Amino acid sequence: MFKKSKVWFVLLVLPLVLAACGSDGNDPAPGSSNGSSGEVASPSGEITVWAHPYVSEEKAGEMKAFWDSVIQAYNAKFPDVKVKFEEIPWKDREQKILTALSSGTGPDVFYQIPDQVPQFANQGVLAPLDDYLTDEDLADFNEGALKAGNVDGKQYALPILQETQTLIYNADIVKDIGEDPANLPTTWDEFNAWAEKAAAKGYYARDFAGAEACCNATLYPLLWQKGGDVLAEDGSVILDNEAGVATFQYIKDMYDKKWIPADSVSNKDQFPEFLSGKMMAIWGSGYTLTVLNEEKINYVIGEPLTDRTKATFGTVGMFVVSDKSKNKEAAAEFVKLLTDTENQKTFNKLTNYIPTRKSAASIHDGDEAMKKMTAIASVSRAGIVSPVARTIMPKIQAEIAAMLEGGKTPQEAASAAAAAVRDELAKVK
Backbone phi, then psi, for 316, in 5-degree steps? Predict the structure, then answer.
C-alpha cells in the first residue's frame, strides 16, 4: 500500500502513535461555561494535525485542496483555533510520530488503524472521545467501522475510511497461461493450479513482501483462509496449531516452487514486478486500482480465496486525539468535522477507499470495480486486535524469513513465532 515515485501500493497499514500535543490553547470541559454569559465556551488556541499521502503524486494537488477545505470549514465554525497541518510520509512514520510525541512536539490529531488503537489505548496515550460525542454524532457510522475504534466500551477514534484487500490479476497473463479472466480462482486448489501454469511460463504467481514486517498483507489472510488465527477467542496463542503450521508450510511451498519472488525475504514492495508484466497477481486494494488505471494495466479483481474459510484483510482508517493534547475539545471537534458525510464523500472518492458513513456509501455506485471491493469488505478482518498487535508482526515475519532462508522448518518457525507472541503478551499483563 504507496512508497515510490507514485506512492506505490500500501496496506494502510498505516500509522503508529503514542501521546501528543504541542498546542497552546485551553481545553475547557465539554459543556463548560465561559463564566460570564452562561454560554458554552468555544474552543480556542492551536491544534496540530498529522496525516499521510493517501493518494499518488498525480493527485497530490487535489489532496492538498481537500485538507485546505476542511481547515477552512473548521475555522468558519471555530475561528479562534489555529490549525497546523502537516503531511508526513508513510515510511518511518512510526518513529517520526513516537519521537515527536516523546519530545512534546507531536500532533493533537493523527491517524491510526484497528490493530494500533488497543495498544495505545492500553498505554493510556489516546484520549477517549465520549465526552465530545452524542448518539447523533455516531448514528450514521457503519457499526463495524465504529467498533474498530472502541476499546473496553470507550470510543477512542472516528473512522474515515474502510479498505479491503484481495488478489488483483493481470488479465493478459491470465490469458497467456490459457485461463479465463472472467473465471478467476476462488479456492487455494484452483489458485495453485494457475500458479503452476504461471511459473511454467516464467511468471511469478503473486507477491509476498516478507520484509514489510506487516503480516496483514502476507501471513494473516492465508492463516484465516486456512481456518487458523494468531489468538483464540480466550486470548490464548494458537499460531502454532495444525492450521498455523500448515499455513507456514504453504508459504514455504510457494517460495520453493518460485511462485513468489526469490527476494520475498528482503523486499518490501514487489509491485514493480506486477507493473512490468512479470507477475500474475498482486495483493491490492482500491488504491492499487487507482495506480493500475493510471498505468493502463489490464486487470481483473479476484475474490478472496478459500481453503477452509473465505477471508481477507481489510482495515479501517481512523483519526484519534492525543491524551496529552492541551486542547482536546478543539482536536475532537476537528475529528468530528473531518469524518462527517461530505468530507467522507470527497476523501474516499479521491482516495478510492470505502466510506464509513452510511450517508456517504453511494459515491462508488457508478464504479463496478469499487463496488466489487466494497462487497469483498463483508469478509474482511481488521488484523489481530490486541495490545501487542503491532509488536508481534516483525517477530512473526522474522520467523517466516528464517524458514524461507532454510534455517527452520515450518513447524519450527510457527512454534518460534507463537513463543514470541506469548512473550509479548506476558509484557502487557
Answer: -125, 125
Helices (H), 267-376: 271-275, 286-294, 328-338, 341-351, 368-376
Question: Residue 211 in contact with residue 267, Cβ under 8 Å?
Answer: yes
Q: Is 189 exposed, middle or buried (0-12, 13-18, 19+ CB in 10 A)?
A: exposed
Residue 300 makes CB contacts below 8 A (sequence gap 6+) with 168, 169, 171, 174, 181, 182, 184
Residue at 27: amino acid letter: D
Q: Which of 73, 83, 95 is nearest to 22 (CA)?
A: 83
What is the CA angle 4-8-256, rounded to 5? 100
* Cβ neighbours for 125, distance < 8 A, ≥ 6 positions apart: 17, 18, 19, 20, 101, 322, 323, 324
pLDDT in tens, the chain (429 residues): 333 333 333 333 333 222 222 333 333 333 333 333 334 468 899 999 999 999 988 899 999 999 999 999 999 999 999 999 999 998 877 778 778 877 888 899 999 989 889 887 887 889 999 999 999 999 999 988 999 999 999 999 999 999 999 999 999 999 999 999 999 999 999 999 999 999 999 999 999 999 877 899 999 999 999 999 999 999 999 999 999 999 999 999 999 999 999 999 998 899 999 999 999 999 999 889 989 999 999 999 999 999 999 999 999 999 999 988 999 999 999 999 999 999 999 999 999 999 999 999 899 988 999 989 988 988 998 889 888 998 999 999 999 999 999 999 999 999 999 999 999 999 987
Specify whether the CB–CB gap between 170 and 297 falls below 8 A: yes
CA distance 192 to 364: 32
C-alpha cell belonging to residue 380? 474482511
Angle made by CA atoms 408, 261, 223, in degrees to the nearest 5: 55
Kindly give the pairing relationship between strand 154-155 and strand 81-87.
unpaired
Exposure string (b/e) for 362-397, b if CB count within 10 Å is 16 or more?
Answer: ebbeeeebbebbbebbebbbbbbbbbbbbbbbebbb
DSSP sequence for 145-202: HHHTTEETTEE-EEEEEE---EEEEEHHHHHHTT--TTS---BHHHHHHHHHHHHHTT
